Amino acid sequence: MSVDPMAYETQFFGFTPQTCMLRVYIAFQDYLFEMMLVVEGVMLKKLDGIPGCKVSPSQIRKCTEKFLLFMKEHFDKLFAKMEEVLLQLVLNIPKNVLLPEDRVQEQYPYSKEEFQALQDELQQLQQQCRAEAAAEQALRAELEEQKAVKAELEKILQCFDGLENICREHGAGNFKESFALLTQNSKKLQDVLKDVEEKSRKMKRHDQLA
């Protein structure tokens, strides 16, 4: 069998020419074996009808096997020649023939350097696509976070609205003003607390010195 990969022929036919020849060889070989079995069966019937024939079936089988071996040797030689002719003249695409799907290469030829440049550009575009996809994912995550924060703020505003309504029901006036006043009083209390703590520390130091 030929060891030439014949890749272009495989692209055109959809199968390797060597595989085709192997199947043809197996088919011929199987037919040869079947034919020899038929011949052997006919010989057994003919000899069985001859009175006093001393040829046994085992002798006929040996003769059949010898003849089969002889036929196979000659068949292999003939098939080798047939394979060479078929691979060169039938299953071979000439070097000057271009398949229809490859004609675009003839219209737009390019060098190895140009092809490498296209490969590099393709890699850059792929990296940009991945970066944009990651950025989009980050933006989606940030948007979801903003939605969660907005929901929390809406809850706080609802809480303030509820407090303001409570203040109005109890005659406390405007909630914002009350809240501002509460903040101022809280700041004054913090200042007083700091002043008391400072005086307490000074008294402790005075007691220690005394």
Automatic annotation (TrEMBL):
Which Pfam families does the UniProt record give? Answer: Mis12 (PF05859)
Source domain of life: Eukaryota
Q: Which residues form a coiled coil?
A: 108-206
Q: Which InterPro entries match?
A: Centromere_Mis12 (IPR008685)
Keyword Mitochondrion (UniProt): no
List, in alphabetical order, the GO biological process terms annotated in this UniProt record: cell division; kinetochore assembly; mitotic sister chromatid segregation
Principal location listed in the UniProt entry = nucleus
Q: Where in the cell is it found?
A: Chromosome, Centromere, Kinetochore
Q: Give any Gene Ontology cellular component.
A: nucleus
Alphabetized, the UniProt keywords read: Cell cycle, Cell division, Centromere, Chromosome, Coiled coil, Kinetochore, Mitosis
Concerning its family, UniProt says: Belongs to the mis12 family.
The name on file for this protein is: Protein MIS12 homolog
The source organism is Chaetorhynchus papuensis (pygmy drongo)
The opening ranks of the lineage are:
Eukaryota, Metazoa, Chordata, Craniata, Vertebrata
